[in-house]
Amino acid sequence: MNIKVVVHEADEGGFWAEVPVLPGCASQGDTLEELMDNLREAIGGWLEAEVPPAAPGSRERVVELAL
Q1: What is the pTM of this model?
Q2: What is the 3-state secondary structure (H, E, C) of the chain?
Q3: What are the two backbone dihedrals, phi and then psi, of residue 9, each rounded to the nearest 5 degrees?
Q4: Parallel, antiparallel, or unpaired: how do β-strands 26-29 and 6-9 relate?
Q5: In what order do the strands lie in the sheet with 6-9?
Q6: Residue 27 pairs with which residues in a beta bridge?
Q7: Phi, psi at 58, each rounded to 5°
Q8: Distance CA 5, CA 47 (A)
Q9: Digit-coded pLDDT (tens) for 28-50
Q10: CB 16 within 8 A of CB 8
Q11: Strand pairing category for 26-29 and 15-18
């Protein structure tokens, strides 16, 4: 899976990036390589976040989709 990220140069040096398709998912690094490693970890954590189960009697359901 490929996910597009927006990389910015930080004013104080280094880089930071945001992941537009994953609200609130962002990271930083002193180098682009460190930033990419940190982003992989941040994206993984975001995707593994727990989703509360549907309320009893609700017509909603929570399912996992493999990509």
Answers
A1: 0.77
A2: CCCCCEEEECCCCCEEEECCCCCCCEEEECCHHHHHHHHHHHHHHHHCCCCCCCCCCCCCCCCCCCC
A3: -85, 130
A4: unpaired
A5: 6-9, 15-18, 26-29
A6: 17
A7: -80, 155
A8: 15
A9: 999 999 999 999 999 999 999 88
A10: yes
A11: antiparallel
| The pair of three-digit structure tokens given for residue 63, joined into one six-digit string | 């399912």
Token duo for residue 57: 């009697």
* Closest CA relative to residue 29, chosen from 45, 8, 52, 44: 8
Going 62 to 43 to 4 to 26, the CA torsion angle's sign is: positive
Reported residue count of the chain is 67
pLDDT of residue 44: 94
The radius of gyration of the chain's CA atoms, rounded to the nearest angstrom, is: 16
Find out whether 25 and 19 touch, Cβ atoms under 8 Å. Answer: yes
Q: State the Cα–Cα distance between residues 3 and 40, nearest whole angstrom.
A: 10
